[in-house]
Specification:
Elements: H1 6-22, E1 35-43, H2 48-64, E2 71-74, E3 83-88, H3 92-104, H4 110-117, E4 121-130, H5 135-142
Antiparallel strand pairs: 1-3, 1-4, 2-3
Amino acid sequence: MIFPNRSFAIAVGVLLISAFVALPQGSRAADAQGKALVALYRVAPGKHLDFLKWMAAREAVDKELGMPATQWYMHTNGDSWDFLAIAPALTEAQQAKVDALATKKGLKTGLQASLEFRQFVSSHTDTFVNGPTTATQLVQQAQGH
């Protein structure tokens, strides 16, 4: 991801770390190894409610399967993104369960879901991350401690 300036990059980092630290252990959107998927969405004009309904339908599948909840943040001012989501990094087995239940409920999966999703967004980025952590812990890891 390319940030427009250093201050923005720091602000996003602080937001992500703060979000993880503030959440109770059981509701953190990261797997047991501290891996998560962070996504920024720029929703297509006029598609905000449709986008949220599409995501909510998938969130219901995750909840039914007992998957950790995705944490959502809504833009209020500043950069041009609309929503930021921090989701657990699923294993292949977990994703297979999610896809099976989604299909059973009539939701699209795989490429069909990917194409359907794209009608709601003008752009998005997603990246896998490790965390939550602290700057001190990262320094220790970098120094081999």
